[in-house]
Amino acid sequence: MQSHIVWDWNGTLLHDMEAVLGASNAAFATVGIGPMTLQEYREQYEIPIPRFYERLLGRMPTEAEWLALDGAFHDRYSELFPAAGLTEGALALLTGWRAAGRSQSLLSMYEHERLVPAVEGFGLAPEFLRVDGRTGASGGRKAVHLARHLAALDGQVDRRRTVLIGDAADDAEAALESGIHAVLYTGGSHSREKLAKVGVPVVDSLAEAVGIAERIAG
């Protein structure tokens, strides 16, 4: 079987950190937390997301607070999303990887019903064997979703030759739990220091990530 990449979407293929930060600051306002800069956000952010809010509040949010935080985030993100674009070089990397006879898929914690039209809007759907977004409640870890994604690709990809490229420590942790490789990109939600703690390669561009994936997966 050919080498395979499982791509993350938000903060990886999609350069949307301005929208994420704006949406996060809108959410923070619902519980009296002041706005953050992008660097502050990257230093504080973690998954699962309720733990991120616990860090900021000094306690776990109540159910009502969580609903307000989550609702405010998604409402504001939807407003800011149209200004987001693909990360530099993403399209050429996707088409080049497929043209070389390799395969790729997309797995995101963005809601599936919103992810699919977003991917189609950028004309990227034909590049992927499979596109999966989050189903169920928001705010959780990626591991269970990755396990389902890989199970659906069973027989089409070799896990020993599969690399997940994402922007969050949770991406790499999920990959390792599923027995695949990971490369982490610094242009998204986490600081380099936080990504480096996971113990997988950390890069500053998607081109570097694909180069490492090519070496790892063959």
From TrEMBL:
Signal peptide: none annotated. The keyword Membrane does not apply. Keywords: Hydrolase. Its EC number is 3.-.-.-. It is an enzyme of class 3 (hydrolase). The keyword Cell division does not apply. Transmembrane segments: none annotated. One of its GO terms (molecular function) is hydrolase activity. PANTHER family: PHOSPHOGLYCOLATE PHOSPHATASE. This is HAD family hydrolase. It comes from Kitasatospora cinereorecta.
